[in-house]
Design brief:
Blueprint: H1 8-31, E1 32-34, E2 40-42, E3 45-47, H2 48-59, H3 73-90, H4 104-109, E4 110-112, H5 113-128, H6 130-133, H7 144-161, H8 195-208, H9 221-228, H10 232-239, H11 253-265, H12 272-285, H13 287-291, H14 294-306, H15 316-332, H16 343-356, H17 362-365, H18 367-386, H19 391-407, H20 413-429, H21 432-446, E5 451-455, E6 458-465, H22 471-486, H23 495-506, H24 520-536, H25 539-543, H26 560-574, H27 578-594, H28 602-608, H29 617-631, H30 633-643, H31 654-673, H32 678-694, H33 701-716, H34 718-721, H35 727-749, H36 755-768, H37 770-777, H38 794-802, H39 809-825, H40 831-847, H41 850-865, H42 876-892, H43 895-911, H44 915-925, H45 929-933, H46 935-946, H47 958-973, H48 980-997, H49 1003-1015, H50 1019-1027, H51 1033-1041, H52 1059-1075, H53 1079-1093, H54 1097-1113, H55 1118-1133, H56 1145-1156, H57 1162-1177, H58 1179-1182, H59 1187-1207, H60 1213-1227, H61 1246-1255
Antiparallel strand pairs: 1-2, 3-4, 5-6
Helix pairs in contact: 1-2, 1-3, 2-5, 3-5, 5-8, 7-8, 8-12, 11-12, 12-15, 14-15, 15-18, 16-18, 18-19, 18-20, 19-20, 20-22, 21-22, 22-24, 23-24, 24-27, 26-27, 26-29, 26-30, 29-30, 29-31, 30-31, 31-32, 31-33, 32-33, 32-35, 33-36, 35-36, 35-37, 35-39, 36-39, 36-40, 38-42, 39-40, 40-42, 41-42, ...
Pfam family, one: ARM_TBCD
Organism: Parathielavia appendiculata
GO biological process, one term: post-chaperonin tubulin folding pathway
Length: about 1250
């Protein structure tokens, strides 16, 4: 429901300085190095990993705020371009150089410098835009042929690699780098270019085409002489080598070299298409090229290329490229007459393709092709409107407008964007009458299929029903209106209908058949339109707009600015989309800032409905909406009305509906506090909710769920405003009681589509009805909200029971309905229903008679005691209900009844082995008085829950039990300060279990144990533990240091007396994270373990001896045993375990042998082999020492070698292969070990294995 706590742009602003400094520092050494003479020279190759770091880690984050790079672009981009040019000029190999090859490994680790530079330049283009980046590239004409020659050489290399294919892959496909000769490449590296290189060089060439002198003066004489010496047939063939393009005679050599390359990559599916389009347009629109007929040739080629040819199979990218060239040429000639002679033929060709539809084949199936067609038609229409108008031109303009209006309903968003923008641009060029007709056509389309329906409770105020309109068409129409307003095309006299359409768009919503929202685009476009309206029109013009059609009360005198501001406040507070909420906030700020003193509390509204404040929806629903209501009641009324619609109680998200209901109650309470009669305001809100409930269909379960929560929130507000008991309060009580009875009767008699939603909401409604029941049964005005009952003690609840007066008939009916419904709701497994129904049970107990109360508790206890037959019903609600009513039962019932609840729960725990049942029991005990007053009874349940590692086909289902047991333990430990003397045994019995769980591999269990562990630490250390990440190295070091530091609560200090038991428990959980956790977790835990052991010999001994003891203690439990073996092997390999002086290696081998004996767990056997190999490795140094330690170590080595020799005869091939690997690591320098090579030991004969074992001394 909410956006992230901290936005990415805010994070980027904080770290941007570090990222920029890092890039600035790294760029110089990345590009250049010092040669032998101390001079700076460009590198030939760079590390691929460093290139990726510069791109992904330092540059890519700036896509959120690209302008932060602007001050540094004048330094970085010239440095990159200069290094690229220097590499081309100074590193050019001679044609006679030998063929070089680059190995695949080297190719992975290194890349040529030009390729890395082009990747960086493309990244800058992606972040900041190619128009910004290209300005910093060198514009010296002397580099034109250098770049062009490099591109041509790369093309020849690609053709050579592909077998001289005349039509090579436009993406520059080819083989490896080692098959192309050194003389075929311009740079040090060989082979074809990547698409980034082609894109950057083509873009650079397009920039150099802005040279202010003729291309004939730039072309080299050598090329001209070569061309002049060619035969006429060869020259003609060269002109026609690009399909369909005939080049005029006498062109400069640069032109004849550029055009084939640009045309080739115009059909590319990658970014090269954009660069080649820009290059082709620049060449065609040059004055010297136009005079030579290049523009005419290219236009005629483009028109021919748009027509499908028999036998020629063309991709959609071919047509997209051709259309983009035409659009670019037309746009570039906007202020000239260069393209005037081609307007008619281009228009009819492109429009004809669009009209033909199916005949155009794949072209019209591409959204990008349709978008480019719209750009072409827009450019033609604009050029036609700039010249003197004639009949043919106006017909084409009208046809273009009709075509664009049709495309406003296109299925693809980019096409609708392009059509709406094109319409606004064309409309701006039209005369006033025709422009008004376009606006009227858009408004008329918006009113199509709009129905009027009567709203609940307000028969005189019909609402507009938009359920029949097309959301895609509305998006296009709303975008068009917004663009028209941005260009101030509509006259101020016609703004009334436009504003009405924008306000409808601001609250527009449609859902697809799958339930997803399809109206967000429309609302986003409406925000843009309102922003443009506020920006482009003066205050006087907007105040003159009539408001009769926008308000129910035409005599209210509210200005159009206030109406728009109120709608924006409601949208900013309630819209489900964060973009719309922020867009509404931005539009509101523009409206109030441009038209000051016209909106009530305008400045304060802008400060309250802040752009960042509305990012999180829960905050917008509660804090922002309440703040706006406090500024003015009209904002609160608008929000209340919207909350009863799709943005509140009708939201698809259940959590959002709950938040909307709570917001409805808060805003109602705030509005009531500003009125003379508070109760009447509450009564109006209740009546409005009830009218909506009555108008619901049975299938509208989500709306019913939200409305029940809204009703409950209003009742929660009653204690705060009910100061005296008068007729208004009696009227509200009567209305509420009748509604409650009707709702509960309806829930009892009907079955809804999603009964769990109705059960949850109705339970919350019962809880919130407590002040109404209080007022109905007593004369006191000291009413309490229902949610306060959960914090009441048994004595306080007993007092509430005692003040209940005589039961009325309605109250008796209410009690009966509540009891009947709770019987059904308490068996649901959903946590929301369980929580709400258990609290509703407390309300029931307060207003029951003693006999009814006793009967209900005994019935729930009996239901909790019996195991249900259905796996989907765990009676979890009965556990929670018993825990909730226990304070009252223990205060008011007899002593034998007090034990009834405890006995029922403990008996169910013993008889029911389902983990779901155990988790529900522990969840109901967490934080309850039942657990606090009966700790000795439930202590074993909590301890067993902490040790539950039940695994089924679903996985580690016991983790659910462990998680709830941790939370129950935490709730117990939070009472340590109340009576620490009596809680020491409690802490001692559970602490080591929590310590083990705080180090285990499951993230959610580890996080919960971290929170529980922090409760029994001193304040400073508890804060440090909570700040650390539960998967970090520092967190695990903290756990390891806990034994040696004085960080524990005094009540826990005695647990440290048995240090071995402490370390055994910690290592039992630690090894699971160090072996079977995710990769990052394994790295962090092993690093923490090594750091701890390297501090002192005592630390090493503590860890290693604990692991050795756990091998014996956890025999038969592979969950701990296998990770322990793996960690022991790891500590041996890093040289830590060998330093331990407290481990008997022979005994360790025997424990490993016992773990390996008759097991079918291959992973366990492999871990045992690695431990044997690590112990056997000690034999290299075993003879250097003296005394008992050396003898014991030698015994362990002999035992380990013997076990490795025995495992060579294991029947499983995988085990044999693992043993051979270990033996090779032990004896790689032994001549006898050469027998291990070149043998398939999985199939080797037994005699051969005996020979090798004997030769290596393993027998």
């Amino acid at each position: 429901m909410d956006a992230s706590e901290e936005d990415l742009d805010i994070k980027l602003q904080k770290v941007s300085a570090d990222l920029i400094a890092d890039f600035d520092k790294s760029l110089g050494p990345f590009l250049r190095k010092q040669d032998g003479a101390g001079r700076s020279a460009v590198r030939s190759r760079v590390r691929s990993r460093e290139t990726e770091r510069l791109i992904s880690s330092l540059l890519d984050p700036f896509q959120e705020l690209p302008q932060l790079l602007d001050p540094h672009l004048p330094i970085w981009l010239p440095a990159l371009s200069d290094a690229y040019l220097e590499h081309l000029l100074t590193r050019r190999p001679s044609p006679s150089s030998n063929t070089t090859s680059i190995s695949g490994r080297s190719n992975d680790l290194l890349m040529p410098l030009p390729r890395a530079i082009c990747k960086l330049l493309y990244t800058f283009c992606k972040i900041r835009g190619e128009k910004v980046v290209v300005r910093f590239l060198s514009n010296e004409a002397r580099y034109l042929e250098v770049l062009l020659s490099a591109l041509e050489d790369a093309e020849r290399a690609a053709e050579s690699k592909s077998g001289s294919n005349p039509n090579p892959d436009p993406l520059g496909g080819g083989g490896g780098l080692d098959d192309i000769s050194h003389g075929q490449a311009v740079a040090v590296r060989v082979g074809a270019w990547t698409w980034e290189e082609r894109y950057v060089v083509l873009l650079w060439l397009s920039h150099l085409m802005l040279a202010p002198f003729d291309l004939a003066t730039i072309s080299s004489l050598e090329e001209e002489e070569v061309v002049a010496g060619e035969e006429e047939a060869e020259k003609e063939e060269k002109r026609k080598r690009v399909g369909g393009l005939t080049l005029p005679a006498g062109l400069p050599s640069i032109t004849t070299r550029i055009l084939p390359l640009a045309v080739k990559y115009l059909a590319s599916p990658g970014k090269e298409r954009d660069a080649s389009k820009a290059l082709l347009v620049r060449v065609a629109m040059r004055r010297d090229m136009q005079e030579m007929g290049v523009l005419d040739a290219l236009v005629r080629w483009a028109l021919a290329a748009l027509r499908p040819q028999d036998g020629a199979e063309r991709t959609p990218y071919h047509y997209i490229g051709v259309l983009s060239f035409l659009a670019g040429a037309l746009t570039t000639s906007e202020n000239t007459s260069d393209m005037n002679s081609y307007l008619t033929i281009i228009f009819h060709a492109v429009h004809g393709i669009a009209v033909e539809g199916g005949k155009a084949g794949g072209m019209m199936a591409s959204a990008l092709a349709r978008k480019t067609m719209i750009k072409v038609i827009r450019a033609i229409a604009v050029l036609l409107l700039r010249r003197p108008q004639d009949m043919e031109g106006m017909e084409m303009v009208e046809t273009a407008i009709g075509f664009l209006l049709e495309n406003l309903a296109d299925n693809d968003t980019p096409v609708r964007f392009a059509a709406s923008k094109a319409l606004s641009v064309i409309t701006l060029k039209l005369d006033e009458d025709m422009a008004l007709q376009v606006v009227e056509a858009v408004l008329e389309s918006l009113n199509r299929n709009v129905l009027r329906v009567e709203s609940p409770g307000e028969a005189a105020t019909p609402k507009k029903d938009l359920s029949m309109v097309d959301p895609l068409e509305w998006h296009g129409l709303m975008l068009t209106l917004s663009h028209l307003l941005y260009r101030r095309s509509p006259p101020a006299e016609n703004l009334a209908d436009i504003v009405q359409a924008l306000l409808m768009g601001l609250s527009f919503e449609r859902r697809s058949t799958s339930g997803s929202s399809t109206g967000g685009n429309v609302r986003d476009a409406a925000c843009f339109g309102i922003w443009a309206l506020a920006r482009r029109y003066t205050t006087a013009e907007l105040l003159a707009v009539p408001t009769a059609t926008l308000t129910a009360d035409s005599s209210s005198g509210v200005s159009i600015l206030q109406i728009i501001a109120t709608s924006l406040v409601a949208a900013a507070c309630l819209d489900p989309s964060g973009n719309i909420r922020r867009g509404s906030s931005a539009a509101l700020q523009e409206l109030i800032g441009r038209h000051p003193d016209r909106v009530e509390k305008g400045i304060w509204v802008v400060q309250t409905v802040d752009y960042h404040a509305v990012a999180r929806r829960s905050r917008a629903l509660h804090d922002v909406a309440l703040g706006a209501t406090k500024l003015s009641g009209q904002y609160g009324e608008a929000i209340l009305e919207a909350l009863l619609g799709w943005r509140g109680v009708g939201d698809v998200d259940a959590a959002s509906r709950r938040a909307a209901g709570a917001s409805y109650g808060m805003i109602t309470a705030e509005l009531a506090s500003t009125e003379f009669n508070h109760i009447q305001r509450l009564t109006r809100s209740v009546s409005l909710v009830l009218d909506h409930i009555k108008s619901l269909e049975s299938r509208q379960v989500e709306e019913r769920h939200g409305l029940f929560f809204s009703f409950a929130a209003v009742l929660d507000a009653l204690p705060g405003v009910a100061t005296i008991k008068d007729g208004a309060l009696d009227q509200l009580i009567q209305l509420s009681m009748d509604a409650l009875l009707a709702i509960l009767q309806d829930c009892n008699s009907k079955t809804y589509r999603k009964p769990e939603l109705v059960a949850e909401a109705a339970s919350r409604l019962i809880i919130s009805s407590f002040p109404v029941l209080q007022a109905a049964t007593s004369a006191s005005t000291n009413l309490l909200p229902g949610r306060s009952l959960r914090t009441k003690t048994g004595d306080e609840l007993a007092q509430l029971v005692n003040v209940v007066g005589a039961r009325t008939e309605k109250l008796g009916t209410f009690i009966a309905l509540v009891r009947a419904n709770l019987q059904k709701w308490l068996v649901w497994p959903d946590l929301e229903i369980v929580s709400a129904a258990s609290e509703a049970a407390v309300v029931l107990m307060i207003f029951c008679s003693d006999a009814e109360r006793d009967e209900a508790i005994r019935g729930w206890a009996e239901a909790a005691r019996e195991r249900q037959s259905s796996k989907t019903r765990t009676t979890s609600g009965h556990f929670s209900a018993l825990a909730a009513v226990y304070p009252m039962a223990s205060t008011m019932a007899l002593e034998e009844d007090e034990t009834l609840i405890c006995d029922a729960i403990t008996e169910r725990w013993r008889n029911d082995v389902w983990t779901d049942t155990h988790a529900c029991i522990l969840q109901s005990l967490t934080g309850s008085e039942l657990l606090k007053q009966n700790t000795d009874v439930f202590f074993d349940l909590v301890a067993q829950g902490l040790d539950d590692y039940t695994t089924t086909a679903q996985g580690d289902v016991g983790s659910h039990v462990r998680l709830q047991a941790i939370r129950a333990t935490k709730s117990l430990w939070e009472m340590l300060d109340e009576d620490p003397g009596t809680k020491v045994p409690l802490v001692g019995g559970l602490f080591l279990r929590i310590l083990r769980l705080a180090a285990e591999k499951l993230d959610r269990v580890r996080a919960a144990a971290q929170a529980a562990l922090a409760v029994v630490l001193k304040p400073a250390q508890a804060a440090a533990l909570r700040r650390s990440t539960f998967s970090s190295k520092g967190y695990f070091v903290f756990l390891l240091d806990l034994l040696q530091q004085d960080w524990l609560h005094p009540a826990v200090s005695e647990v440290k007396a048995d240090a071995e038991r402490w370390m055994d428990a910690l290592m039992a959980g630690f090894v699971s994270s160090a072996d079977t956790g995710n990769e990052e977790l394994v790295i962090a835990t092993r690093a923490a373990l090594c750091e701890f052991c390297e501090r002192s010999a005592a630390s090493t001994d503590a860890v290693c001896t604990a692991l050795a003891r756990n091998l014996k203690a956890w025999q038969g439990t592979d969950r701990v045993l296998v990770p322990t073996l793996e960690v022991i092997a790891f500590l041996f390999h890093v040289g830590i375990f060998a330093q331990c002086s407290g481990v008997n290696y022979k005994s360790l081998c025997l424990q490993v042998q016992k773990a390996c004996y008759k097991t079918g767990n291959v992973r366990k056997i492999e871990a045992c082999i690695r431990v044997y190999g690590a112990i056997a490795e000690l034999g290299r140094d075993a003879g250097r020492g003296d005394g008992d330690d050396a003898c014991k170590k030698q015994e362990g080595v002999r035992e380990a070698r013997a076990r490795l020799g025995a495992l060579m005869f294991h029947p499983w091939p995988r085990v044999k292969s693992t043993v051979v690997d270990e033996l090779w690591a032990l004896h790689y320098d032994d001549p006898a070990a050469q027998a291990l090579k070149s043998v398939d030991w999985a199939r080797a004969e037994k005699a051969k294995m005996k020979t090798v074992v004997g030769a290596l001394g393993l027998a």
